[in-house]
Amino acid sequence: MSSAGRALPDTGLVVAARQGDQRALDEVVAASLPLVYNIVGRALRGHADVDDVVQETLVRVIRYLPALNDPTAYRSWLVAIAIRQVRDWEQRRRIALNRDAGLDAIHNVPDPASDFAGMTILRLGLTDQRREVAEATRWLDPDDQELLSLWWLEETGEIARTEVADALGLSPGHVAVRIHRMKEQIQSARGVVRALRARPGCPDLRTVSAEWDGVPSPLWRKRLARHVRECAFCGRLNANLLPIDRLLAGLPLLPLPAGLSAHFPSAASPAASQAFGHQPPGLSAEQTVGQAPAGGVPTDAGGGPSVVDLAVHRPRGLVPSLAAGVAAAVLAITLAVVILPEDPAAPSWAAPPSPAPTAVASPSSAPSRSARPSSRAPVAPAVSSARKGVGVWNFAGASQALASSKAGWYYTWGTQHPGISTPQGVAFVPMIRSAENVTAAELARARAAGPYLLTFNEPDLAEQANMTVEQALDLWPQLMATGSKLGSPAVAWGGPEPQGWLDRFMTGAQARGHRVDFITLHWFGADFATTTAVDQLRQYLQAVYQRYKKPIWLTEFALIRFDGGGPQFPRQEQQAAFLTAATAMLGQLSYVQRYAWFGLPATDKDRSGLFTDGTEATLVGRAFQAAR
């Protein structure tokens, strides 16, 4: 195991920071960020509040570092503070859930884009059994997620067992018992992961998991693991599982996201990078930490106030407005920090940690903005995501609503967006809606609008594009001539059905040598129960992918029941809960490249919409803002 992680930050740097050296304090905080990010991110399973908890941890480090009696104990002290903040967050979350039980699904779903298991797999390039171990961690009990964050760091050589024990307030022996139990849970989850991924799979396992919503949980781990243990077929799949410790040994810490490093360049300095497995080329400590101008406050390399100065000397009453997601965590610290009680007394955890349970005890802090005071408060910080899209038709304030929605892309069922301004950083995707739109002018506008082109909206419905398969195939070469990446015609239903509209189109396209780059789908759920609806959507997408083996764009979806007499909508709370759980599920399907909610405006007619005007988001709209 590498011991590089335990070597930094240097004790001399900590001493200088304690004595008021602004530059040293900036470097200590920057070097601490990757470790805090990994502890908090894994313990919270990538919840949207990761950035808040990282922020609160670093602010407390800045505030109470002068009270640290033993600079050599800095790392243990830092880990203890991070775990304290994780526990405080869990307590606030439980209080919020009890007070606002109607939105359980919204509060409780981890953010898929910040999911540490998925990020570990993708960004560290894990394969085979290491990938299975990372995926298995999603199935742990909540209490063991905290332990996992520390044990993982111990296995990668970043912290020692004594530091794990200090952070948890347990003896090393008790920690060993808990780790043994947690490893057994991961091992059983590995068997579940492997059995679920097997092709062809176990028919009996499909029966057992028929009601599973596709989201890993401790309850379903126990149910599915019981089957795996008792099933001869599934048991054979797990005959060659290597010990977990061997698979994790030597793995580096998960690197900071590029966006986060860009906003906190000090964290990417050679000292910090060497400690945390992230080494951007061409940066030196002198380039990443600025000097204080004469008569002014300390600055970073970009000329702005340093993170420490803004954290400690922030304006009174400043309310932070964080860009959501881990990539904005430290940018948020640099710009605005949560208001902490102005209590000069250092809490008990500012002392050097010891094996005693009181090592991580602290007085209760003021509730953070993570604790929602009412159901009308935002469910989470707004999140921008390139995957997240929305269907838009013009209404009063549409441009402002589009920007506020934090959608990364949008479309208007046409090749133009009259009356709608495209926000900076947001992509407009054109559509050739029907046969009558296959004209030279429309195709030219589609070509100019960007690299992607949506095609033929619900050709299987008389009130929409209303096209035969042969008609669509005959017109397809003109769409290919745009050079755009083409989505299949977006059928209203029956995507995976043999001899259905889409199946006949894809068969005909292959026979004629036509190019189809991705599958476009619509889906509207008639069952308003969140778990059932999400499971039905997941099964539909999986069936389509298994049939065509192409990436999928889900360009219209919501809960709407069409059974005569006009569309029927669920309650706002139900729609919001579905949106949150569904987008979390979509984030776990690697073949779903983009999705678009139906739609942006919310009226008496369109009650699945996100905004009633340019500024007022519905409950569904607030759930969309928090989605990725």
Q: Which properties best describe this structure?
A:
single chain, 628 residues, alpha/beta, 3 domains, six-stranded parallel β-sheet, three-stranded parallel β-sheet, 8% strand, disordered N terminus
What's the gist of this structure?
Keywords: DNA-binding, Sigma factor, Transcription, Transcription regulation. With 628 residues, the chain is α/β, with parallel strands linked by helices. It has helices spanning 4-7, 11-18, 22-43, 50-64, 74-99, 104-108, 116-123, 128-136, 142-155, 161-168, 172-197, 203-208, 218-230, 232-237, 244-248, 258-263, 270-276, 285-288, 307-312, 329-335, 398-405, 440-449, 469-480, 501-512, 530-548, 572-586, 619-626, and strands at residues 385-391, 407-411, 427-428, 431-432, 452-457, 485-490, 519-525, 552-559, 592-597.
Description:
The protein is of the alpha/beta class. The protein has 3 domains: 7-98, RNA polymerase sigma factor, region 2, helix turn helix motif (Rna Polymerase Sigma Factor, Chain: A, Orthogonal Bundle), CATH 1.10.1740; 115-249, no CATH class; 388-626, Glycosidases (TIM Barrel, Alpha-Beta Barrel). 46% of the residues lie in helices and 8% in strands. The protein has helices at residues 4-7, 11-18, 22-43, 50-64, 74-99, 104-108, 116-123, 128-136, 142-155, 161-168, 172-197, 203-208, 218-230, 232-237, 244-248, 258-263, 270-276, 285-288, 307-312, 329-335, 398-405, 440-449, 469-480, 501-512, 530-548, 572-586, 619-626; strands at residues 385-391, 407-411, 427-428, 431-432, 452-457, 485-490, 519-525, 552-559, 592-597. The chain is globular and about 75 Å long. The relative contact order is 0.11. One of its GO terms (biological process) is fungal-type cell wall polysaccharide metabolic process. Residues 357-380 have a biased composition (Low complexity). This is RNA polymerase sigma factor. It holds the Pfam family Sigma70_r2.
